[in-house]
Amino acid sequence: MTAVHVRGLRRVFGDRAVIDGLDLTIGRGEFVALLGASGSGKTTLLRILGGLDGADGGEALVPAARTIVFQEPRLIPSTKVLGNVTVGLPRGAATREIGLRALAEVGLDRHAEAWPATLSGGEAQRVALARALVREPELLLLDEPFAALDALTRLRMQDLVGELRRVHHPAVLLVTHDVDEAVRLADRVAVLRDGRLVTDVPVAVDRPRDPGDPAFVALRRRLLADLGVHVSEEAPTADPLPLEGAPA
């Protein structure tokens, strides 16, 4: 069964096609990571799939039940944590219970009555995840949600997303600059260049995935090459990768 069906998608800004005849399919419950340099069209594609932007051609069929988690948590500062999780849902005891369960899943049930300003960056992103998942989406869109976090918190958040995906079974599209993050989490990794997919490859690495696993290393090197990044055989492959930049 298919959750996302994109064919011939095109989005033009001025005289530039940011998305240029793109095809992409994501199965129900499948986790796909999308890599690409800044300006390659990653976030534009995510915004189209999320209903925040329109296309100039082609088709994009997506579930009505879909949510987006951005790089910034985008919490309402004047609303407590539980209210941020359940914003837009009908008020009442049932909704409150659903929100508390979602916060418990992300380890923040004790922060339900806290104000967003008292949260750390990682905690705020956990609230954003709870807010997305409380609606039980068929499609979860993640736009570099961990890019602003420190390395240790980022790894913990990756583990949390993996566990939430296992429990809730949404289809997931993760936009990221981080090759290791893509390989660690996804079932498939796609590389976007100049608005077109140049790579779409399954991640044939046993879980839990170790960055030192030869299969992990080999896929990392292939994806870096597809991104136009040369890594010598002698270079340490676990160093930070030179792909960070503004979302595109």
UniProtKB/TrEMBL annotation:
**Swiss-Prot/TrEMBL keywords:** ATP-binding, Nucleotide-binding, Transport
Domain of life of the organism in this record?
A: Bacteria
Q: Which Pfam families match?
A: ABC_tran
- GO molecular function (one): ATP binding
Q: Give start-end of the signal peptide.
A: none
The protein's matches in SMART domains, at most eight in alphabetical order, are given as: AAA
Glycoprotein: present as a keyword of the record?
A: no
Domain (ABC transporter) spans: 4-219
Q: Name it.
A: Aliphatic sulfonates import ATP-binding protein SsuB 1
Q: Which organism is it from?
A: Streptomyces gardneri
